[in-house]
Every structure is written in structure tokens, then in C-alpha cells.
Amino acid sequence: MTTPPDPADTLRIVAQGDAPVLEALAHMQHDTLERSGLDPRTYFLVRLGALIAMDASPASYLLALGAASEMGATIRDIQGTLTAIAPVVGSARVASAAGKSLRAAGLAAALEDDDELI
């Protein structure tokens, strides 16, 4: 009998980029920023809004929040995005997004602290 893979090990593999799924996802993203006609900050805030609407996973928030931050989005921008979409998606989705974002931040901190990943 084999044991299922440890979720932490799976996350490490994905975080290191050692997964064909990441290549497929990267290919799907090719040129979408340019084709959108949006500035990078707005583009990543819109994508964050879509993740919230879909009730995405913490890993999705990890990537989205990191990209938004790299493009100059601030905490106020992210709060503004949450406020703007709350009447459309509802309070449950916004609360879920907040919790998953916190888990994503914890995951990011754990990955940064893990010397074996680097």
C-alpha cells in the first residue's frame, strides 16, 4: 500500500516550478497583459477580483497578490478591489478571500524560511 504524497512536498515541488502544469498555466497567460490594454497594476487587481469571484485556492492568491504587489498595488488598492466587488460577489466570498489570502501569506513566509527550496 502506498501512502499519498505529503501536501507540503507537493507545494514545494509546485513552488520550485518543477511541474508541467505550471508550464501549461504560463503558456495560457502569454501576452494577456498586453492584449488587455490595461496598465499592469489594474490588470493584476482585475485578476484578483476574478479569483475572489471564483473562490479560488490560497495558492492562487499567493501568485496573484505577489504579482499585484510587484506591479505597485498597495494594501489600499487590494482593499478597494474587495470593496468594489463585494456587492457583486457577496460577503461570503470576500471573507473567504481574506482568509485564503492570509493562508497564502503564511505559505509565502514558510517557503521563504525553508532553506531547502532555494
Task: Describe this entry's structure for a reader.
The protein has a domain at 38-117. 76% of the residues lie in helices and 0% in strands. It has 118 residues and is mostly helical. The protein has helices spanning 7-15, 20-29, 32-36, 40-54, 58-70, 75-89, 91-113.
List keywords for this structure.
single chain; mainly alpha; 7 helices; 76% helix; globular
Computed over alpha carbons, the radius of gyration is 16 Å
Distance between the termini: 32 Å
List the helices and strands in order. HHHHHHH
- Strand segment tally: 0
User: Structural class of the helix and strand makeup?
Assistant: mainly alpha
What is the global morphology? Answer: globular
Biggest sheet overview: none
Indicate the topology:
Blueprint: H1 7-15, H2 20-29, H3 32-36, H4 40-54, H5 58-70, H6 75-89, H7 91-113
Structure summarized in a few sentences:
The protein contains seven helices and no strands. By secondary structure, the protein is mainly alpha-helical. The longest helix is centred in the last third of the chain and has 23 residues, at 91-113.
